[in-house]
């Protein structure tokens, strides 16, 4: 089967974890990793694994644009503004892993199919990838008036970018709970826990369903089905316990253990982002390949 | 005329006390309490949801009244006192800070877990931009070694905090531990040092005096102990004690006593005391606002709330992780079930 060529922009934690995951893909062929620091661990590993390592940023990549049709942007929201513009001009599809959110929000388990034709899609936040599937799971069987999510992650897994712009997490996730999850109103909270050994990512999802629309059996089944879907691309995603029902409130407890590719297993929050990125890119690629065979 | 104050008090009943009454403050209550505190010449009055701006949630408890209405009401009757707000990055955002400042809040207290100060630079800088006085509020100060606390306080100072607080959110610290923390901060940062106590081990007053002896000049209290857990250092008592020690707070003792008795006491569903739950918070080192949530979970699962709190302490749960309470309670109940069957 032919593969679609991809490149990774950004050689930090996310970019390097993506590199390891992409090495296993049946439909994506990683060709290049693009950074700005030739000495970075990410670029060093890329060279070791035989990928083209570009240390002159997006402009360096654009000198050899034939290297990839899909580019993951794992830099920063600020850098993405420029990257998105030049990559679009070069006709590349971009999967935005930063909080810049120029393109539509995509949650891999929920609304990917609607956006396969877009040039630039945004992967929301780690909390969004972990919780919006559950909001949607409830909402598709019992309309959700209000959804609130609490994401607790280990301090070690929250990088300087997240920390300096923590409002971006709460605001982006809240909006996506509404736009993608389908809740009429969304709210997001993030907590950093410094315990040693580091904790796995935990997410609690509260959904208030419309008066008179509670259907426990249907909600339980929908939650289970959705868990299976997310697990298909994030093996460490699981329910911590059965959902709780109390009046019209459904509380869902989720835990995410990472695959331990480049990032440690506790960093489920980073793993779910990179896994979602690969999943979305694979769907893009299948879509492109299907068109080519027609 | 106000005399020179040696210590600047912040009354936290209208924020920390929100926990104790499950976030049910009304505009009238806030108006009455603020008027009286203003009249008693209390320099700062904190008004927010217990978990800070935007804390109203299923996770922490929904506010009966939108906190912005409460802040606006308080600011409207405080012509001497300044209104302060609390904000925990990760819960509240710059938007709420801006709104609160627009309604008359003059001081922003930006709270993080003791090891996570670097989530606060945006909020401290923005509060400054809005013309507010800024406080860095290092919560759960017992959970980090002194050197770590110093490092984090320096970060907050570098972001522009005018004051950095040692916050004993669990009411766990012993007087010597408070002493070494405040002393270390006094030696290493140039801005004011503050201290916030909880009375879960009946040490709030002793700890506050230790902090003051080591040079803390910003002190929190809650009138009638209206704060989370067993409440904070009781403000009216602190005013009396400091007066006897010759330390000037500028606060009118008689007026404080009157408002405690006549205005604040009736707000409390039951008087604040050190119950077995609040004692367990202090003993196990658990965030004080967990008390009521643990009590409810214990009832629901028919288990001892102390077992929940002790387990949460063992797991080193931090402030804000109220969702762990039900989780842990369910686990304990399941284990109990297993043993019985």
UniProtKB/TrEMBL annotation, chain A:
EC number(s) stated in the UniProt entry for this protein: 1.2.1.10
Record flagged with keyword Nucleotide-binding: no
Keywords: Aromatic hydrocarbons catabolism, NAD, Oxidoreductase
Active site: 126
Substrates-to-products reaction catalysed: acetaldehyde + NAD(+) + CoA = acetyl-CoA + NADH + H(+)
Keyword Oxidoreductase annotated: yes
InterPro entries: Acetaldehyde_dehydrogenase (IPR003361), Acetylaldehyde_DH_C (IPR015426), NAD(P)-bd_dom_sf (IPR036291), Semialdehyde_DH_NAD-bd (IPR000534)
Stretches assigned to the Semialdehyde dehydrogenase NAD-binding domain: 5-118
GO molecular function: acetaldehyde dehydrogenase (acetylating) activity; NAD binding
Gene3D superfamilies xref list: Dihydrodipicolinate Reductase, domain 2 (3.30.360.10), NAD(P)-binding Rossmann-like Domain (3.40.50.720)
Binding positions (NAD(+)): 11-14, 157-165, 269
Assigned protein family: Belongs to the acetaldehyde dehydrogenase family.
HAMAP family the UniProt entry points to: Ac_ald_DH_ac
Name of the featured protein: Acetaldehyde dehydrogenase
Taxonomic source organism: Bhargavaea ginsengi
Automatic annotation (TrEMBL), chain B:
Record-level GO BP terms: L-leucine biosynthetic process
Sorted UniProt keywords: Aromatic hydrocarbons catabolism, Lyase, Manganese, Metal-binding
GO molecular function list: 2-isopropylmalate synthase activity; 4-hydroxy-2-oxovalerate aldolase activity; manganese ion binding
Residues the record marks as active site: 19 (proton acceptor)
Amino-acid positions noted as binding substrate in the UniProt annotation, renumbered to this chain: 15-16, 169, 196, 287
CDD domains membership: DRE_TIM_HOA
InterPro entries: 2-IPM_HCS-like (IPR050073), 4OH_2_O-val_aldolase (IPR017629), Aldolase_TIM (IPR013785), DmpG_comm (IPR012425), DRE_TIM_HOA (IPR035685), PYR_CT (IPR000891)
E.C. numbers: 4.1.3.39
Chain positions recorded as Mn(2+) binding sites: 16, 196, 198
Annotated Pyruvate carboxyltransferase domain residues: 7-257
Chain positions of site Transition state stabilizer: 15
UniProt superkingdom: Bacteria
Residues in the signal sequence: none
Catalytic activity: (S)-4-hydroxy-2-oxohexanoate = propanal + pyruvate; (S)-4-hydroxy-2-oxopentanoate = acetaldehyde + pyruvate
Short name of any one Pfam family annotated for the protein: DmpG_comm
Family (UniProt): Belongs to the 4-hydroxy-2-oxovalerate aldolase family.
HAMAP family assigned to the protein according to its UniProt record, in alphabetical order: HOA (MF_01656)
Name of this protein: 4-hydroxy-2-oxovalerate aldolase
Organism: Bhargavaea ginsengi
């Amino acid at each position: 089967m032919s593969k679609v060529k991809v490149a990774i922009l950004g050689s930090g934690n996310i970019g390097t974890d993506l590199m390891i995951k992409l090495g296993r893909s049946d439909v994506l062929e990683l060709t290049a990793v693009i950074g700005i620091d030739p000495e970075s661990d990410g670029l060093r590993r890329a060279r070791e694994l035989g990928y083209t390592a570009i240390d002159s940023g997006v402009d360096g990549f654009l000198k050899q644009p034939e290297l990839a049709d899909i580019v993951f942007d794992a830099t920063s929201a600020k850098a993405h503004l420029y990257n998105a513009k030049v990559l679009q001009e070069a006709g590349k599809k971009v999967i935005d892993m930063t909080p810049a959110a120029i393109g539509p929000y995509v949650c891999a388990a929920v609304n990917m199919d609607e956006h396969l034709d877009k040039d630039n899609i945004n992967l929301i936040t780690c909390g969004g990838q972990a919780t919006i599937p559950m909001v949607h799971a409830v909402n598709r069987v019992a309309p959700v008036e209000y959804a609130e999510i609490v994401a607790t992650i280990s301090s070690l897994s929250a990088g300087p970018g997240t920390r300096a712009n923590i409002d971006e997490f709460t605001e982006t996730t809240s909006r996506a709970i509404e736009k993608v999850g389908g809740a009429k109103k969304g709210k997001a909270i993030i907590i950093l826990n410094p315990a040693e050994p580091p904790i796995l990512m935990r997410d609690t999802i509260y959904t208030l369903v419309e008066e008179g629309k509670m259907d426990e059996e249907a909600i339980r089944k929908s939650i289970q089905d959705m868990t299976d879907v997310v697990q298909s691309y994030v093996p460490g995603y699981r329910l911590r316990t059965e959902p709780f029902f109390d009046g019209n409130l459904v509380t869902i407890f989720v835990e995410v253990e990472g695959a331990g590719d480049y990032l440690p297993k506790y960093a489920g929050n980073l793993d779910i982002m990179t896994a979602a990125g690969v999943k979305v890119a694979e769907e893009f690629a299948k879509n492109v390949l299907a068109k080519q065979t027609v | 005329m106000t005399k020179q104050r040696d210590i600047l008090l912040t009354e936290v009943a209208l924020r920390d006390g929100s926990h104790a009454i499950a976030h049910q403050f009304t505009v009238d209550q806030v108006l009455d309490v603020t008027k009286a505190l203003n009249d008693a010449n209390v320099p700062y009055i904190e008004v927010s949801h217990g978990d800070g701006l935007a804390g109203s949630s299923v996770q922490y408890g929904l506010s009966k009244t939108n906190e912005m209405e409460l802040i606006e009401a308080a600011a409207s009757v405080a012509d001497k006192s300044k209104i302060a707000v609390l904000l925990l990055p990760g819960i509240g955002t710059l938007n709420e800070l801006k709104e609160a400042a627009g309604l008359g809040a003059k001081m922003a207290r930006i709270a993080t877990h003791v090891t996570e100060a670097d989530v606060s630079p945006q909020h401290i800088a923005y509060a400054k931009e809005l013309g507010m006085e800024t406080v860095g509020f290092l919560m759960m100060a017992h959970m980090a070694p002194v050197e770590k606390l110093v490092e984090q306080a320096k970060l907050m100072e570098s972001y522009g905090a005018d004051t950095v607080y040692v916050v004993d959110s669990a009411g766990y610290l012993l007087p010597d531990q408070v002493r070494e923390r405040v002393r270390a901060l006094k030696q290493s940062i140039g801005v004011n040092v503050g201290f916030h106590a909880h009375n879960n081990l009946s040490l709030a007053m002793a700890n506050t005096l230790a902090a003051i002896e080591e040079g803390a000049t910003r002190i929190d209290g809650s009138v009638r102990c209206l704060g989370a857990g067993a409440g904070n250092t009781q403000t009216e008592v602190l005013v009396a004690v400091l007066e006897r020690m010759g330390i000037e707070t500028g606060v009118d003792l008689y007026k404080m006593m009157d408002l405690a008795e006549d205005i604040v006491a009736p707000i409390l569903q039951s008087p604040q005391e050190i119950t077995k739950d609040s004692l367990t918070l202090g003993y196990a080192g658990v965030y004080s606002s967990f008390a009521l949530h643990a009590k409810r979970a214990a009832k629901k699962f028919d288990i001892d709330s102390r077992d929940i709190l002790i387990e949460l302490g063992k797991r080193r749960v931090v402030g804000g992780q109220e969702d762990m309470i039900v989780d842990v309670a369910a686990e304990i109940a399941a284990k109990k079930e297993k043993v019985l069957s």
